[in-house]
Write the structure tokens for this entry.
Amino acid sequence: MAKKRGGRKYGRKASQKVERAMHERKRGTLRSGGSGKKVTSRKQAIAIGLSEARQAGAKVPRRKKR
């Protein structure tokens, strides 16, 4: 049985964007796009970082459909 081969799932740019979003969340300066409310959720901060990375053209897997 052959092993699955693959590179990185997320690119370096993606991790940088997520890291920046997490720092902003900690400082209390991260805002959501639609309403402009302050983001306090860790998961939401990660989602915002990945979304920004996608827009910047970084290597990020596609969003899962619900």
